[in-house]
């Protein structure tokens, strides 16, 4: 019965329409200290620091659970804080222990923005212009480079002559070149991405076998070389080098304050005069595709110079 009476004191009864129901509440009222519980270490330390005897502990008003003395009760007894501060703090904690959603209001709908109220056709047009400008900027940011290899047609011409003399059919050079380009575009190396290179480097550090994704990948290309004579190729390259050399000489003349000595124009003897059957195969490609394009040109060089007869059999 003593336990039931103590429980009844802790759980007060609230009268309802159907009867009485128990309600759990936070104890905030001041009460006499219950010394059957040991003091908190912080409270015992505070009592010792202020030289409060154990006989005066019963005079301190307790606001803690089950009549236990809190540190704020001791400070209130000493007059350091207001006497009502512990009880006010306990009631504030009890109030804020439950989430109060009574002051929440539904936000008013926002007014439509001008961009959203515009016709759908205008929005599509604006998006198209933005995407077009981004693609133009990306295209401008890609650096291009030009690579070239010399290809000799001597063996290819001799093969054509043998076919014409034996069969009586003249096969044009364009047939051999297009067939060589079609074969050379197969199985070209693909540059691995940054993530694949990092994975391969990590596997190499750990001594693991490289994964299939980290190994060299191959795919079919769509390159078509530009074929010019050596004289045309070297003349276009020589003009750019000559203009660069001229600008360098002008800067040196300005710095030294003297005129450069006149140089005799020397015509460059092109190696094509020694071998008139040589042509230059070149490609203008983005800088990151240089290795892939060079592999294509080297395969074409091998097919046309060393194995021209195989182009008709393949």
TrEMBL record:
Molecular functions per Gene Ontology = acyltransferase activity
Q: Which InterPro entries match?
A: E3-bd_dom_sf, PSBD
The ranges of region (Disordered) come to 110-133, 253-273
What family does the database annotate?
Belongs to the 2-oxoacid dehydrogenase family.
Protein name (record): Pyruvate dehydrogenase complex protein X component
Q: Where is the Peripheral subunit-binding (PSBD) domain?
A: 38-78
Q: What keywords appear on the UniProt entry?
A: Pyruvate
* Superkingdom of the source species: Eukaryota
- In this chain, composition skew of type Low complexity spans 110-120
Q: Does the keyword RNA-binding apply?
A: no
């Amino acid at each position: 019965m003593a336990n039931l009476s103590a429980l009844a004191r802790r759980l007060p009864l609230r009268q309802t329409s159907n009867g009485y129901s128990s309600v759990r509440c936070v104890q905030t009222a001041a009460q006499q200290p219950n010394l059957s519980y040991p003091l908190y270490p912080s409270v015992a330390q505070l009592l010792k620091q202020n030289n409060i005897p154990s006989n005066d502990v019963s005079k301190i008003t307790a606001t803690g659970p089950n009549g236990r003395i809190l540190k704020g009760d001791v400070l209130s007894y000493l007059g350091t804080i207001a006497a009502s501060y512990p009880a006010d703090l306990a009631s504030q904690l009890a109030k804020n222990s439950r989430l109060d959603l009574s002051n929440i209001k539904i936000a008013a709908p926002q007014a439509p923005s001008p961009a959203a109220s515009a016709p759908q056709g205008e929005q599509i047009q604006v998006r198209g212009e933005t995407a077009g400008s981004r693609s133009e900027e990306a295209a401008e940011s890609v650096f291009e480079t030009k690579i070239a290899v010399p290809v000799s047609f001597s063996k290819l011409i001799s093969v054509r002559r043998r076919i014409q003399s034996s069969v009586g059919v003249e096969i044009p050079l364009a047939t051999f070149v297009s067939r060589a380009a079609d074969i050379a575009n197969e199985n070209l190396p693909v540059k691995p991405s940054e993530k694949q290179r990092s994975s391969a480097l990590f596997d190499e550090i750990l001594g693991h076998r490289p994964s299939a994704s980290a190994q060299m990948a191959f795919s079919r290309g769509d390159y078509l070389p530009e074929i010019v004579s050596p004289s045309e190729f070297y003349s276009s390259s020589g003009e750019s080098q000559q203009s660069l050399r001229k600008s360098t000489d002008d800067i040196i003349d300005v710095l030294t304050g003297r005129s450069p000595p006149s140089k005799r124009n020397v015509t460059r003897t092109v190696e094509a005069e020694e071998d008139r059957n040589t042509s230059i195969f070149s490609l203008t490609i983005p800088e990151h595709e240089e290795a892939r394009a060079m592999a294509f040109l080297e395969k074409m060089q091998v097919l046309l110079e060393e194995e021209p007869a195989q182009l008709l059999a393949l």
